[in-house]
Design a protein that fits this description.
298 residues, Rossmann fold, seven-stranded mixed beta sheet, four-stranded antiparallel beta sheet, globular, Methyltransferase type 12, methyltransferase activity
Length: 298
């Protein structure tokens, strides 16, 4: 299999990198991967990741819920219940941040957020790399969902007042290209929302190699608030706010306990750990398990 090995930081180019953790793909392949830290910009990245043409098989599983839409098993049923809550939560956030009604959802998965926002009167367009998920959104909801090649080539139509990336930036091989294109697509007074896991969170520190939000090798990059903010500024944005995602610490902790082999204890232990992580970030969004960064053009 063709893999990518980094001799220097893929984000800032620093050679001051070292191995931080050894972990594995807990959900699909069971393969081992190393995580490396850059002491220059603070990025943590997955080493020896599959090349883009090889990564598809690591998404082809019912365990990858955002693409498969399965409801099998307790964790997946909890995911669906949480998703319904988060759709309303995201809607409220969008409406609080912008009065504009044209929305681009990058990495839209099976299209539930797009469909929800269309029901609220928004003109929506989606981008999704997975063909199965893309076709689900098109066939199930009648959505306009494009391939990421259109985004990367700069050929998506028009500009957008709202652009969202819910747990997507950590998946893309060239985050700077994506942010450059989104800067071009965003209206002058528009808002970009980027949600990514935060490996410096309480649950990230606790679970270490078993932390579910590392999700290797699908997650190529692992951001701290320092790194994400620096990257955004480099690409012409200003970070105007941060907000924790309230359900993420519970879901991630539950999965992490499962990966630790806790069996029937995974649910109560995960709930307790998630609560502690949630409480630690109530007034400090930079400590949240996952952070929504709210960006505008600088």
């Amino acid at each position: 299999m063709s893999t990518i090995h980094y001799q220097q930081c893929p984000l800032c180019g620093s050679h001051d990198i070292e191995k931080a953790l050894a972990t594995r793909d807990h959900s699909i392949s069971g393969e081992a991967f190393d995580l490396c830290d850059c002491h220059g910009c603070g990025l943590r990245f997955t080493q020896n990741v599959p090349a883009p043409e090889q990564i598809g098989r690591y998404y082809q599983s019912e365990n990858y819920i955002s693409h498969s839409d399965t409801k099998k098993g307790l964790i997946n049923r909890l995911y669906h219940a949480a998703r319904d809550y988060m759709l309303r939560n995201k809607q409220q956030l969008v409406q609080n941040l912008s009065k504009q009604r044209r929305l681009l959802d990058v990495g839209c998965g099976t299209g539930y957020f797009m469909n929800h926002m269309r029901g609220q009167g928004y003109e929506v367009l989606g981008v999704e790399v997975d063909e199965g998920a893309r076709n689900f959104g098109i066939q199930q909801f009648g959505l306009d969902v494009r391939s990421p090649t259109e985004l990367e080539a700069g050929t998506l139509p028009g500009k957008f007042g709202v652009i969202s990336m819910w747990h997507v930036l950590e998946h893309v091989y060239d985050p700077k290209l994506y942010l450059r294109r989104l800067h071009e697509l965003l209206e002058a007074d528009g808002v970009l929302m980027i949600a990514v896991p935060n490996y410096t969170s309480k649950d990230g520190q606790k679970y270490a190699a078993h932390w579910a939000a590392y999700d290797v090798p699908r997650h190529l990059w692992h951001f701290s608030p320092r790194t994400l903010c620096s990257l955004a500024e480099e690409m012409g944005f200003q970070v105007v706010g941060k907000k924790g995602m309230p359900l993420d610490p519970f879901y991630v902790s539950l999965l992490s306990e499962k990966y630790r082999g806790r069996g029937m204890l995974a649910l109560p232990l995960g709930a307790w750990s998630g609560l502690r992580s949630f409480l630690s970030s109530l007034n400090r969004p930079e400590k949240a398990s996952s952070i929504i960064y709210i960006l505008k053009k600088a």
